[in-house]
Write a structure and sequence with these properties.
The complex is a heterodimer of chains A (308) and B (232). Chain A is mainly α. Chain A has 11 helices and 4 strands. In chain A, the strands form 2 sheets. In chain A, strands 1-4 form a two-stranded antiparallel ribbon. Chain A has a two-stranded antiparallel sheet with strand order 2-3. Chain A is globular. Chain B is mostly helical and 232 residues long. In chain B, 75% of the residues lie in helices and 2% in strands. Chain B is built from 10 helices and 2 strands. A two-stranded antiparallel ribbon of chain B has the order 1-2. In chain B, helix 2 crosses helix 8, helix 3 packs antiparallel against helix 4 and helix 8 runs antiparallel to helix 9. The chains are: A mainly alpha (308), B mainly alpha (232). Chains A and B meet through helix 4, helix 9 and helix 11 of A and helix 5 and helix 9 of B.
């Protein structure tokens, strides 16, 4: 394959990754922004979403579209409920103390991961996509007759991948709408800005925290449901989204929705493109070092305004 | 002689007595605990004293290990110089990482150290040709011997661990009791749990959550507050 078509293929893969990543990272950013809690178990809620999607799809059987749709509702719901229970049972009781929270969420990470290992098993299991039509993509060619379009061999994507991108954009817009145009968003932003003053104005901060932790987990789960027809569900799949989300949240600037999305695009695209042309390991080494440098020289992130 | 000096000396002596009396299984475990406790003491200096929560401290453990192992394996170095290179590589790495990471504080410091550690981990995988990636490699037998000492022997290992542990104690590497208790607890917990089930990290996870919930101030704090207030 020539360079041009190859680059386009890599960009589409990167775009799919960026779309899913921005949702996952948004969950982490929300939890950190509002609660000041570093949730090490965030990746496990992602994994939980994928595993529940497999479970729901198997339970529904027959029609993959109905199974997928059910998973899209059930998976974030269950992950969210587990997160709310965790917040109520553990995080609230240790007063969201930063260090204790990290140890507790490391504990939670192992509990979720190993529970899935005991019930779901160590195998990677696929979930069938609701629709998966191959779409050939055109490329330009300079022939004697001038520029013309043609369909190079191997340059194609699937309708499902395009759907993932569209669905992620729709969900991002939804989150943006909720955060900036509704009363709930106002309450969330008020708590993020100053939880004590919010409490003084009658905002039930404890319940807001539980809700935010649940929303964060639900966002991770829903992005996993979107990706699972492409990637397969596995009990160790949470580590990579956790690391990438950390990277995105930090580069984008903590608590900045716009920054998170732009950073997800940057990281997802560059990861996808470098992975295709060089090696995935090299891509990740460069990304992690880049994050470290950004934090060292620009602690507020690329788009953030506050100090981290 | 100060009270601390006497306590440290008594501890080292007690560990030597244990060397002569312990059954094989616990003999090996205590040797592990002594080595890992030195690691924990180092971590305690960073986190316990200065409050800098590094999520990448294990990278320096790996730097020492790979610095020694790789130079023995690929450069045919003798044990002692290879050992020195191991220590040197961890020190140099710590210097460079510290130069950059110490410009940040709080969550920033956590993430920066985590990212450096991740980059280190991935670099080890990337050079899999030499490091054998996630399979790792077994050190050549000549690199496990020094003069007449054979470090593949349980007795030698225990005594070497005791010497290392003793050095860390007597150069006053910060608080010692907390890291020692924590290390002993984790080593035995993980070993016990792994005998029960394959998903033993589940038990470890539950224990971590329960400790953060119910044992305020950690195990040492709890013991001090509730059981023996005179403990140093």
């Amino acid at each position: 394959v020539e360079f041009g078509p190859h680059l386009m293929l890599a960009s589409i893969e990167g775009l799919v990754q960026a779309a899913v990543l921005s949702l996952t990272a948004l969950g982490l950013s929300l939890v950190f922004g509002v609660m000041r809690v570093v949730n090490v178990a965030h990746g496990e809620f992602y994994m939980l979403g994928a595993v529940i999607a497999w479970w729901v799809a198997t339970l529904v059987g027959q029609n993959p579209a109905i199974g997928f749709l059910a998973a899209l509702i059930v998976a974030p719901l269950i992950a969210g409920i587990i997160a709310v229970i965790t917040d109520w049972l553990v995080l609230k009781r240790i007063n969201y103390d930063p260090e204790a929270t990290i140890v507790a969420t490391i504990g939670l990470l192992y509990i979720l991961q190993q529970s899935v290992l005991m019930t779901f098993g160590p195998d990677a299991r696929p979930v069938e996509a609701p629709f998966n039509t191959r779409i050939a993509l055109p490329w330009f060619e300079n022939t004697e007759a001038g520029w013309s379009l043609y369909y190079p061999w191997g340059l194609s994507t699937t309708s499902y991948k395009l759907f993932v991108i569209v669905a992620a954009i729709a969900l991002l817009l939804l989150v943006w709408y909720v955060m900036s145009r509704t009363k709930l968003g106002l309450i969330l932003r008020a708590t993020q800005l100053d939880s004590e003053t919010a409490l003084a104005f009658g905002i039930p901060v404890e319940r807001v925290y539980a809700l935010v932790f649940g929303m964060g987990a639900a966002l991770a789960a829903i992005s996993a449901v979107l990706i699972v027809p492409i990637q397969q569900a596995h009990y160790l799949m949470g580590a990579e989204p956790l690391l990438l989300s950390f990277i995105v949240v930090i580069i984008g600037g903590l608590g900045s929705l716009r920054g998170t999305v732009i950073a997800a695009l940057l990281i997802g695209m560059s990861d996808g493109i470098i992975s295709v042309f060089f090696s995935p390991t090299l891509a990740k080494i460069m990304a992690t070092l880049l994050v470290a440098m950004v934090l060292v020289y620009r602690p507020q992130g690329l788009f953030g305004t506050r100090r981290a | 002689m100060s009270r601390n000096f006497l306590l440290h000396a008594a501890l080292v002596f007690a560990l030597y007595v244990l060397h002569l009396t312990l059954p094989d299984y616990h003999h090996g475990q205590v040797a592990r605990i002594m080595v890992l406790a030195v690691y924990a003491m180092g971590y305690n200096i960073l986190f316990g004293y200065s409050g800098l929560l590094s999520l990448g401290h294990a990278m320096f453990f790996a730097a020492g290990m790979y610095g020694m192992g790789l130079s023995a394996q690929h450069l045919d170095m003798a044990t002692l110089p290879a050992f020195a290179i191991g220590i040197l590589s961890a020190t140099v790495l710590a210097f460079i990482v510290g130069l950059l990471a110490l410009r940040t504080i709080g969550v920033g410091f956590m993430i920066v150290t985590l990212m450096f550690a991740q980059a280190g981990y991935l670099t080890i995988l990337y050079f899999g040709e030499y490091t054998r990636g996630d399979e790792g490699f077994v050190l050549v037998t000549t690199a496990r011997k020094f003069m007449s000492l054979d470090f593949s022997q349980a007795d030698t290992r225990y005594l070497a661990a005791l010497v290392l542990f003793g050095i860390a104690l007597f150069i006053k590497a910060g608080t010692t009791l907390g890291p020692i208790i924590g290390t002993a607890f984790m080593v035995y917990l993980i070993d016990y749990a792994s005998g029960l089930t394959d998903a033993y990290m589940l038990l470890v996870g539950v224990t971590l959550v329960l400790i953060t919930l119910f044992v305020r101030g950690g195990i040492l704090g709890f013991v001090r507050a509730k059981l023996v207030p005179w403990l140093p």
